[in-house]
Specification:
single chain; four-stranded mixed β-sheet; 11 helices; 6 strands; 49% helix
Length: 283
């Protein structure tokens, strides 16, 4: 892989950090807030933030000095300073950082190198099992890679600020994959990130706006007359078109859906009967 490809990759890649180590080094606020929340900072503060970011992140590339010279590293940090990652990329960074900070058996945790990340599409592996973190529920991964779906609306607000207790929420999703975390460390990470988040809100009068989750709605359409389906065994086949439409749902919808999920099978059956009866009467 040539140097320019690696520089481009590093310019947009967020290397996982150790929340606890960064906190003790007093660099955690820059690491977890700068990328997504700098747009909310007062303009007079942005210059000092960028200066601190440059100083902190330049040191993170020292281990690549055998391959990249000083000018290359300066260019990469400058690009990182100016390029804003997408929410999905930032959620991936937060999740990998929590693993890096709290995984109970760090010897078996591996992050991909440049080539593996670019060509194979996985984010971390444990004992040869590869995992891909995504905020896209429809993403298709390779059959030998396990997908971990993390809903965007559970982690960030519209301004990109982490939500309260993100470490607890992320840990719960990771636990569901039978990946063991040190929960004392998870609780400590959660405490320090909440502390930084609350201080940011107080200092800069941050206004919380939730990201509304999207839901998929199944819609059946009548087959158009110009759609031709070949006969099978001289029989005309019955056809229909089914499509998925995605729309935003309100917070009330989410709460209602959660209540429905908690119903017993008999209650759900009764609800379906009532809905069918209601729809029949409307028709």
């Amino acid at each position: 892989m040539n140097k320019e490809t690696i520089k481009k990759y590093l310019s947009t890649h967020l290397q996982p950090i150790d929340f606890i180590a960064d906190y003790h080094q007093k660099t955690l606020p820059i690491s977890i807030l700068f990328y997504k929340v700098v747009k909310s900072f007062p303009k007079e503060k942005i210059g000092s933030m960028k200066g601190a970011f440059k100083h902190i992140h330049k040191a993170k590339f020292n281990h690549l000095s055998f391959f990249l010279n000083e000018e290359d590293i300066t260019e990469i940090v400058k690009n990182q300073n100016n390029l804003r990652p997408k929410n999905g990329q930032y959620i991936e960074f937060l999740t990998l950082s929590l693993l890096n900070s709290c995984f109970s058996n760090p010897e078996s945790l591996k992050f991909p190198n440049f080539q593996e990340d670019i060509s194979e599409g996985w984010d971390f592996s444990i004992k040869q099992h590869k995992f891909d973190i995504t905020s896209n529920p429809n993403k298709i991964t390779r059959k030998d890679i396990y997908k971990i779906y993390i809903p965007e609306h559970q982690i960030l607000d519209k301004q990109g600020l982490v939500l309260p207790d993100i470490c607890i929420k992320l840990a719960k999703i990771i636990d569901e994959q039978n990946i063991s975390l040190d929960h004392e460390k998870v609780d400590f990470c959660n405490l320090i990130i909440n502390k930084i988040r609350n201080r940011y809100i107080e200092n800069y009068s941050h206004r919380f706006e939730p990201i509304m989750p999207s839901s998929e709605i199944l819609i059946k359409k009548e087959t158009s007359s110009n759609i031709l389906v070949p006969n099978f065994n001289d029989e005309e086949l019955e056809t229909s078109v089914v499509s998925l439409k995605t729309r935003e749902v309100s917070l009330d919808d989410v709460i209602l859906l959660d209540k429905i999920k908690q119903l017993s099978p008999s209650e759900k059956s009764s609800l379906c009967g009532l809905l069918d009866s209601f729809i029949s009467k409307k028709l």
